[in-house]
Amino acid sequence: MAYRCWKSHCSVLPTLPVLNTRSILHAFSKLALFQMAPTQDILFEDKGHAGIVTLNKPETLNAVTDTMLTALNAQLDVWERDDKIKHVVIKAVEGRAFSAGGDIRHLYDTGTKGNFDFDFFAREYALNARIRKFPKPYIALVDGIVMGGGVGVSFHGSHRIAGNGIAFAMPEVGIGFFPDVGASYFLSRLPHHMGLYLGLTGSRMKTADCVALGLATHYVPSDQFADLETALCEEDIATAIERHAQPAETAPYLAYASYVERAFAGLTLQDVFSELNQMQNEGGDTGAWAAKTLATLEAKSPTSLAIAFHQIRMGIGKDMDECMKMEFRILKRILTGNEFYEGIRAAIIDKDNMPVWNPASLASVDQSTIDAHFADLGEEELNLQ
Asked: Alpha carbon of 89 to those of 111, 176, 256, 310: distances in Å?
């Protein structure tokens, strides 16, 4: 079986249109797949009637790069046309993470110089949307940390298998960004207002929670992932998964789901904070949970909190393509602002963990500024036709 892979320093990527996603996907499909040793960032293998994708960059926790996304999109084009391939399986090499997100240091280095990498996000968002509507089953075997860009290449698949070590989170508001890669679609559809809670607090969900919330469709013990992969290459999906899946334990989030449902039901972000303050004053378990949640929210960028709140509430009424267009509008304004770069500075450049948000409080956030992040981009809209 021949492996195909891409090096992250590949120099043959074409010049792609920034916004016309149809052109982007067409260009992707024309990229040649190289025959190389199976030691690079992303690997592809035809195995039985499955196409196997392996994220293979453990030294960076499999953070997705532009080249990896380009390669994946090109290979999906091949497998979509190949009648021998009945479904796609994406996994990661054994390690701490499935994929811990994207290369935010690169975005900092380029953005602070005025070079905003809109092209990368246009390609990433196009791929996220494509995975959601891919005509063949797309099965993600997810174990370890999965955040940001890693969520985008896994959680939009038809089958999302959680291992014992899965740790899902969307922590973007903590660095002045927003939950993207289709989070406005899937977070908005979670029960008990858990999508708002996860998007605003960045809290992690483990195996049982992911299954109970529907973020994962099944639980399979991590030590059975290899056997499941083999079965998926030889059997039909339902038979393979049914033979390996097990009931997950009781979801820990159920212990505080009623708190989340009460606190995050407000029509505005100010309503959420008001309810949390009321709950904190009640004392006991309710008060302790509310106090912890308030402290978490108060450490985030007020601007990002307001954007994410509006984004997730709007997402429930939109389909995947509409959500990706909305996220691209937000993205273009975020990258040309200041909060994102201040968040990265504090987290990974100076590592002082003391971001200076501007404005510094939710009360000082101008609603017109938030609304501007969602305004139509005109000719620069993301085109997903």
From this structure: 34, 33, 34, 34
3-state secondary structure of 344: helix
| pLDDT tens digits, 164-216 | 999 999 999 999 999 999 999 999 999 999 999 999 999 999 999 999 999 99
* 356/367 Cα distance (integer angstroms): 20
Partner residues linked to 141 by β-bridges: 161
Burial class (CB in 10 A: 0-12, 13-18, 19+), 314: middle
**Stated pTM of the model:** 0.88
pLDDT tens per residue, range 82-126: 999 999 999 999 999 999 988 888 899 999 999 998 999 999 999
CB 90, CB 140: distance < 8 Å: yes
Give the type of residue at 259.
Answer: Y
Block residue for tokens 């968002």: 125
What are the sequence ranges of the domains in the chain? 1-385
Q: What are phi and psi of 244, to 5 degrees?
A: -110, -25
Look at residues 288, 382, 284 and name the one whose alpha carbon lies nearest to residue 326.
382
Q: Residue 230 is encoded by which pair of tokens?
A: 């083999």
3-state secondary structure of 142: strand
- What angle do helix axes 118-132 and 66-81 make, rounded to 10 degrees? 30
Angle, helices 302-315 vs 320-335, to 10°: value is 160
- Helices of type H across 163-301: 183-186, 194-201, 207-213, 225-234, 237-244, 257-263, 269-281, 284-298
Q: Catalytic residues, which ones?
A: 102, 149, 172, 180
State the Cα–Cα distance between residues 5 and 54, nearest whole angstrom.
9
Type of residue numbered 42 = I
Q: Pick 1-385's CATH classification: 3.40.30.10, 3.90.226.10, 3.30.70.3400, 3.30.470.30.
A: 3.90.226.10
Residues 50 and 232 sit within 8 Å (Cβ to Cβ):
yes
